[in-house]
Amino acid sequence: MIITNPVIRGFYPDPSVCKAGNKYYLVCSSFQYFPGVPIFESEDLVNWKQIGHCLTRSSQIDLESVNSSGGVFAPTIRYNDGVFYMVTTNDTYHKNFYVTTTDIYGEWSEPIFVDQGGIDPSLYFEDGKTYFMSNGSDEEGRGCIYQCEIDVKTGERLTESKPIWKGSGGRYLESPHLYKINGNYYIMAAEGGTEYGHMITYAKGNNPYGPFVSYHKNPVLTNRNLGGHQSKIQGIGHGDMVIDNAGNAFILCLGFRQHDTWSPYHHLGREVFLAPVYFDEDGWFVAGDAGIVKKEMEVELTKEQKIYDYSVDFEDLSRNKLPLIYLRKPDYDNYKWTDNCLKLKGCKTDLSQALSPTFVGIRQSDFNSSLSVEVKSVSTEAGVTVYMDENNHYDLYVSKVDEKISVVFRKCIADIKHIEKSIDVSNNSNIILEMNSNNYVYMFRCIIDGECIELGSGQARYLSSEVCGGFTGVVVGLYAVDKTENPNYSEFTKFVFNQVVEENK
To answer: What does the pLDDT read at residue 503?
Structure first.
């Protein structure tokens, strides 16, 4: 059958996948956002539904004051003897840890830390032993994959950490995963950096410590040699392999969609792509379409793919709040939900600080989107933000200063903070804020007592990873700021965020 990539759209980077029974489970990085590490479930590898998060308590992950694109890096999910394991890094504090659960729909354990450095940790289980691996550097400063055995109940190292593979020569060796397939051991990793040179490489050996022989045609999967005129899908890398009940193998990996043929920017973040894997009689494998990931891929699957609609409104969120994310360490007392209304109590922290503002967001999953919300503000500032990080965001908000009410459109790009337009409104005006987007631009307007007023636009490339740096993607949010001593709640109603699947080839 033909499937359409990406299979999970928007800012869900660094996917890892495991199989338990007849279902598949996938986790992604979450960085400075909370709850941490979203979990998806699928029966067929192409239709994915979010079912929870691994890190839902502040006792599991310390995100207070972490820098943007810090915090939770590159998780790995594994299933062994009835237990799920999610191992990851709090990169800000340079700590590798894992959490466990026997109920994938329930809560996960408190963290168990492992005394081995590096990032992108992974686990491998065999014959009662638990192998722990992460990236690092050897005595000559060359990138390598380190591995040790641990007591899985305590995280204690049982053996010395040893380098088991030094990659194929690309920079930033990361994302190691170990597999045993048909009697062979495979170490698979990413190299080249999670940008336009990203790639997946691997090596084959005869035991968990090797020695490993690199695949002679590495990389096995990459789009690095394709310009935008050949493919708008770029950055393919950082993958994990899974085998279905029929014995077919697949890699789920990250990639991103650039704006257009001659516009090499991406702002939706790194997304999840699916590629088939084929083994030859000597145990080597190839992946994708001659090593390339395409928008449309021929795979050995039988279930029909349904293109998921990430659009939401308050009615949707009253039933399922899983798409919602907060910054760092939210104070939930500042958020009051009803079926058709959200009340936000602003705090003194604003969106341009690397702290925890009153903010609730939804990942943008497609270039074409539209948002509409009615705001009744009694805070200093309350509205909508198109947010990449604390230095780069577009804000459309209602301002209240000394009983004067205004609707304001502001651009914050790097160290430039500029109010594009501000209009005064009466205290009893009905105010609706609206945003529309396409591949290139965000457009902002308001509707005041039924009259539509255009407020300006902001180019999407100024919220892209190429301009802003970092590892995240655009999150569209509602927020409030109140720097008074007795902050009040702002009220948001009639919220609709539509996201339309783009039709780029």
So the answer is: 59
Q: Are 145 and 187 spatial neighbours (Cβ–Cβ below 8 Å)?
A: yes
In angstroms, the CA 34 to CA 134 distance is: 24
Per-residue pLDDT reduced to its tens digit, 349-374: 999 999 999 999 999 999 999 999 99
Nearest to 31 by CA among 62, 68, 64: 68
* Residues in Cβ contact with 316 at an 8 Å cutoff, skipping those fewer than 6 apart: none
Catalytic residues: 14, 174
Q: pLDDT per residue over 380-414, tens digit each?
A: 999 999 999 999 999 999 999 988 999 999 999 99
Please give the Cα distance from 195 to 475 (Å, whole number): 20
CB 136 within 8 A of CB 144: yes
User: Rounded distance, CA 184 to CA 71, Å?
Assistant: 35
Query: Which DSSP symbol is given to 111?
Result: P
HSE (side-chain half, CA atoms, 13 Å) at 204: 15
H or E element that contains 368: strand 368-376
Side-chain-side CA neighbours of 203 within 13 Å: the count stands at 23
- Spatial separation of the C-alpha atoms in residues 268 and 461, rounded to whole Å: 11
Q: With 90 as the cut, is the pLDDT of residue 288 above it?
A: yes
Q: Residues 29, 8: contact at Cβ < 8 Å?
A: no
Domain ranges of the chain: 2-298, 312-500
pLDDT, residue 317, reads 94
Q: What are phi and psi of 379, to 5 degrees?
A: -90, 175
Q: Which residue has the tokens 């941490």?
A: 36
Closest CA to 361 of 118, 102, 32: 32
pTM for this predicted structure = 0.97
Quote the CATH superfamily of domain 2-298.
Answer: Glycosyl hydrolase domain; family 43 (2.115.10.20)
94 torsion bin: left (phi>0), alpha (psi -120 to 50), beta (else): left
User: How do residues 184-204 score in pLDDT, each as one tens digit?
Assistant: 999 999 999 999 999 999 999
Distance CA 412, CA 387 (A): 10
- The stretch 202-213 carries a mean pLDDT of 97
365 CB burial (10 A radius; 0-12, 13-18, 19+) = buried
Distance, in Å, from the CA atom of 339 to the CA atom of 317, rounded to the nearest integer, reads: 8
Residue 91 structure tokens: 């990169």
- Predicted confidence at residue 279, as pLDDT, reads 97
CA 428-429-433 angle, 5° bins: 140
Cα gap 21→42, rounded to integer Å? 11
Fold of 312-500: Jelly Rolls (2.60.120)
**Amino acid found at 105:** Y
The partner residues of 326 in beta bridges, in order of sequence, read: 34
